[in-house]
Amino acid sequence: MQWLASIGRNTIDTVGSFGRAFLMLMGAIIAKPQFVKNTPLTIKQIYVVGVQSLLIIVVSGLFIGMVMALQGYTILVDYGAEGSLGPMVALSLLRELGPVVTALLFAGRAGSALTAEIGLMKATEQLSSLEMMAVDPLRRVVAPRLWAGIISMPMLALIFSAVGILGGHLVGVDWLGVDVGSYWSIMQSSVDWSEDVVNGIIKTIVFAFVITWIAIFKGYDAVPTSEGISKATTETVVFSSLAVLGLDFILTALMFGIE
Amino acid sequence: MSSRKAEIMVGLFVVLTLAAGLLLALKVVNQGMSSGTDTYTLYAKFDNIGGLKARSAVKVGGVTVGRVDSISLDPDGYTPVVELKIYQEYNKFPETSSVSILTSGLLGEQYVGFQPGFSIDGIADLAEGDYISDTKSALVLEDLIGQFLFSKND
């Protein structure tokens, strides 16, 4: 009986948290737009969430592009196909690594910070005090962070891919001596705007939404103790990473899978 | 942190993103069939198109003059029909031109090689919707090996 009850309790908890997450999302995004009041708040959050993640994104993009060029070169040179280095680096960055690695870094760098911040606001009863002042915390605290995450992450992923391609150029062309003309021209002939770039951007928008949603909900729903906040922060990183990887498979299958 | 500084940094972030997008749009992506270029349509029937795909290039002496728009099967005769979109600036090809399906490099992609024919008086230029009659099919490796083995047995 004990284990049956625990299965039931866990199921009810899980379904309940999905419901609370959905209600929080609806409360945050469905409302009369107040651009004058909310734009400055959102810009400040874009600074915190996006601009401050820029360094880690640029550095890892550069190194991932460089490593891919190095790895790809050692394999392709056996077939005399090192001219295909450009499309290899560009396609893997635009389709997969740009969206996914950016999403994982974003979950670790910005998602955890969002959870901890909102969780601490809850623990120190700042959210309740906002409500006492008749300010809706969903609109004042949650919505700007949600929009900031959804806006910033696709921008970060775009920068990541561009820097990665330049990093691949640095290693492939400047160091290993792949012809500069074939690096760019074969890349141009095999990368398609709507097929590759737009699909990659769609992926990042989905990832951004999921990560920010999970991060904010975990903070908003955290048990207001120091232990609860630490648990919520861990769960944010774990859950959003798993969600990103799972969704990536589904999206890839839909976009590039069966014709 | 003043909100002014945040605004400046976010502005910088946006500019950086636009620069990245511009790099992708101009240097990484193929300009290909941007809707702005005027094209006209030619058709060619092949026995076998091999690995030709839609969006493959049409080349004259290595210069891209158009792209494959679509590939379909002719219901009478069951031969593949390839629809070629040729850029309007190259509209003086004579009717005696021929097309063949070629491969760039050993393992490269396949493209349509366009061989302009001779033009003398009385031979018109190819126009919108014309069929190119002189075509050479793609080389299929298995057929080649088969022919080779067959001729060895003689």
UniProtKB/TrEMBL annotation, chain A:
InterPro entries: ABC_MlaE_roteobac, MlaE_Permease, Permease_MalE. It is found in: Cell inner membrane. It holds the Pfam family MlaE. Its main location: membrane. GO terms for cellular component: ATP-binding cassette (ABC) transporter complex. The chain crosses the membrane at residues 46-70, 155-177, 197-216, 237-258. Keywords: Cell inner membrane, Cell membrane, Membrane, Transmembrane, Transmembrane helix, Transport. It is a multi-pass membrane protein. One of its GO terms (molecular function) is phospholipid transporter activity. Part of the ABC transporter complex MlaFEDB, which is involved in a phospholipid transport pathway that maintains lipid asymmetry in the outer membrane by retrograde trafficking of phospholipids from the outer membrane to the inner membrane. Probably responsible for the translocation of the substrate across the membrane. The complex is composed of two ATP-binding proteins (MlaF), two transmembrane proteins (MlaE), two cytoplasmic solute-binding proteins (MlaB) and six periplasmic solute-binding proteins (MlaD). Belongs to the MlaE permease family. This is Intermembrane phospholipid transport system permease protein MlaE. It comes from Paraglaciecola mesophila KMM 241. The gene is mlaE.
From TrEMBL, chain B:
InterPro entries: ABC_MlaD (IPR030970), Mce/MlaD (IPR003399), MlaD_Phospholipid_Transporter (IPR052336). It holds the Pfam family MlaD. Residues 39-117 form the Mce/MlaD domain. One of its GO terms (molecular function) is phospholipid transporter activity. This is Mce family protein. It comes from Paraglaciecola mesophila KMM 241.
